[in-house]
Amino acid sequence: MFLNRLDSGVHTVNSINNVLLVAAIVGMFFLLMLQVFARFLFYFTMVWADDVIVFLLISSVFLGSGTATAADKHIRLEFFISYFREETVRILLIIADIVSISFLAVICFQTAGLGRQALQTTVGASPVPLGFYYWVVGFGCLVMLLNFAVVLLKRLKRLPIGEKAAIYEDEDPMEGKRGENRA
């Protein structure tokens, strides 16, 4: 029950994250095009545009990392864990999730405080306050943290109690790792 509610809430956060990601990428594209046209057609430079584009690029990286984590497409060293037994792999993945959640929690906490402190500071000619840079990093890390928490809870729920359990979410317990037969 709790896991289903949490999963539903995280799905909503992921949807908001995806909308913000698309807005950042589209905004970056249009701002770049506007800057090119203004510079080459009208010989006019928008000094602030470069700084806003950098903000949107940073935003797209951290929002995209939240999306990658939600889709389970983040970087992982699967070749390393393939040398261990399944029980050891389960424990290693749970430990990795706990370490990831801890690291992301520290980043979220730090960016919240730094964002508040830096609200009155601007970067270069940018109209975007420096605090927003910290907050977008924190939001991306929060999305990753929530997705790792859901994955961790699902892994803990699938811990074997006298029967073989799946290691990965898309794995069938009867077939082995990621659909490959292990004979």
Describe the structure.
This protein is 70% helix and 0% strand. The radius of gyration is 21 Å and the shape is elongated. The chain has helices at residues 2-41, 47-70, 78-81, 86-117, 130-157. The longest helix is centred in the first third of the chain and has 40 residues, at 2-41. Helix 1 (2-41) packs antiparallel against helix 2 (47-70), helix 1 (2-41) runs antiparallel to helix 5 (130-157) and helix 2 (47-70) packs parallel to helix 5. It has one domain. With 183 residues, the chain is an all-alpha fold.
Keywords:
mainly alpha; disordered C terminus
What fraction, in percent, of the residue positions are helical?
55-70%
Global mean pLDDT: 84
Biggest sheet: strands, sense, closure? none
N/C terminus separation: 36 Å
Instruction: Tell me the number of strands.
Output: 0
As residue ranges, the low-confidence spans are: 172-183
Strand/helix succession = HHHHH
| Overall SS class | mainly alpha
How many domain modules? 1
Rg measurement, Å: 21 Å
Topology:
Layout: H1 2-41, H2 47-70, H3 78-81, H4 86-117, H5 130-157
Helix pairs in contact: 1-2, 1-5, 2-5, 4-5
Could you give a quick summary of the protein structure above?
With 183 residues, the protein is mainly α. Helix content is 70%, strand content 0%.
